[in-house]
Amino acid sequence: MDIKIVDVAAKAGVSPATVSRVLNNNNNVTSKTKDRVMKVIHELGYQPNAAAKNLRSQKTMAIGVIVPEINNSYYAEVIKGIENQAYAMKYKVIICDTSNNKEKELEFINLLMNKTVDCMILVTPMMSDEEICHWADMDYSIGIVGRYIHHDKVPCVHTDNVKFSKEVVNHLVEQGHREIAFLSGYADAIDSYERLEGYLKGLREHHIPFRPEWIENGNFNKQGGYEALKRLIEKKVSFTAIYAANDEMALGVYQACGELGIKIPEQLAVIGVDNNRISRYITPQLSTVNQPKMKMGGAIVERLIHQLENGEVTDNRVIILESQLIVRDSSRSLPQT
Amino acid sequence: MDIKIVDVAAKAGVSPATVSRVLNNNNNVTSKTKDRVMKVIHELGYQPNAAAKNLRSQKTMAIGVIVPEINNSYYAEVIKGIENQAYAMKYKVIICDTSNNKEKELEFINLLMNKTVDCMILVTPMMSDEEICHWADMDYSIGIVGRYIHHDKVPCVHTDNVKFSKEVVNHLVEQGHREIAFLSGYADAIDSYERLEGYLKGLREHHIPFRPEWIENGNFNKQGGYEALKRLIEKKVSFTAIYAANDEMALGVYQACGELGIKIPEQLAVIGVDNNRISRYITPQLSTVNQPKMKMGGAIVERLIHQLENGEVTDNRVIILESQLIVRDSSRSLPQT
DNA sequence: TTGAAAGCGCTAACAG
DNA sequence: CTGTTAGCGCTTTCAA
């Protein structure tokens, strides 16, 4: 079959151990024998068997990544950040797409946590805090993106949803709006909850009495946003601006407004979250909040691998990255500059 | 440390071999002992060590996927198709993002081809046919998406670039255009070449004399399309329509036209390829060619795994999937319906 | 139907 | 500085 370490050793006239040392940059080898071994390795085109190496060294140099939807641009960007950083740190990346299915999420974590990978990154996981803590307690190395978990060993990277949501409300109020509706995402997603919280706090800061009819759920997707806006209209509740908890739902709002003949931003100001690439191309350009997606992916890899290799948990377990409000035409009341 | 097969065997009062048989659905086990073993497995929460299993069985149940850019929506869709089909066939997916870097591509293939994965899928690889054939000759299981390779053992899935490119030209001619420029992608990408070929054949079918000034390279990205259009204008060559070999370049054309005050489609008809999600949202909506991206990903996995598990090469090694021309406002001369 | 034993290819401890 | 030896945890003959 394939050529193995003993073959190299034999041809180079050394022991397998020496070949192993050469391959793993162990210093205790004469540069002379090292050269000889390297020469044979190249001659034979020897490639160490990863399975054997993994078994023996109890390491795989692989990171498992579980994402809700790989073809969603938000997650694709996070993954890109993970890939880049993993590559820089010499790790491979196994990606599992759950299609927003919690069963699959659990299945994948079980599938990988048997020495298939050294650690895992859960991107906005669907499972509960308790479940995640359960895995962490079993000494599985887990990192989280887009959510905060209260567990000493679990590094988390996320953005300050409350903070930027207040900024969104602030911006809308500055544009003259007092009646602002809110479209939330999945009811159980932490992002939904925190953005709602920021929205409410924003209203309060401006002494705008909150009205529950202003809130509708749009499940973070376009269809949901579309339906939510229609429900809002049917309720005959008055509002002049809408804060959608992500750009996808804002897209649905655009569609509904198109059908209903509602002009954006003249009759309804719209703002989303994510800075999805489409937001810049749609007319009118959609105001949004930029999330440092690639940075988030990179940061969690860095932290997780560091923790894995150095054993100890770093003090900066939780990383909160900054988001920026991007004001475009969809929420500008004045003629654009 | 972790609990292993001997622990299960001991507690169940059987040999490790029996536990292994139970786990691998080997029939030669009494249902009674099987039940007992299963019970212990659950009690102990036993998870077979993947590294040991891989080493012993010479299988990993993993597919390596090498893509140029994971956050590009085209590739993200292909990957989604791969993920879904791999999941259905119980395979894991290791994704490597080359960032359009050929060095990285070679590095990754070397990295994974050592029993880290059972087979690999190269999505529009940058390496030459010779290089790919070289790997295939070494008995590495390789599948290709988006390109045709002349090698018995290498399954390929792609679309008929020549065919749909002729349709594109045909459509533009029907709209009254006779002067059609072409924006190609990377010079060495097979897609570029074939789309150019289809464009030329399309012109010929309509007896339109081809002019070399009509062709510019835009490297498949937005900036490239932007610059290519500007060069085209500077050359003072006359053209009323432009066929961009992908939507990204068409986006660059839009930008350049915006700056130059060229109206689409009145002064310039534009059509792209890929049916990127943005194409539907931009104004005017971009005509394009839809590629069955997810289907392509699924098809290659199916074929590759089949070949891997059944040993023999299937006769339908090359799969050519259909693309559809999607006509939108950017290439319609008449007022839209 | 089950068990004993060998070994997948590598690394690391211990000698020398 | 280098070699010998013993496993990593599993599957798979071969015997019983």
Automatic annotation (TrEMBL), chains A, B:
Matching InterPro entries = HTH_LacI, LacI/GalR-like_sensor, Lambda_DNA-bd_dom_sf, Peripla_BP_I
Spell out the Pfam families in the cross-references. LacI, Peripla_BP_3
Q: Which UniProt keywords apply?
A: DNA-binding, Transcription, Transcription regulation
SMART domains assigned: HTH_LACI (SM00354)
Q: Which residues form the HTH lacI-type domain?
A: 3-57
Gene Ontology molecular functions: DNA binding
Name of this protein: LacI family DNA-binding transcriptional regulator
Organism listed in the record: Paenibacillus vulneris
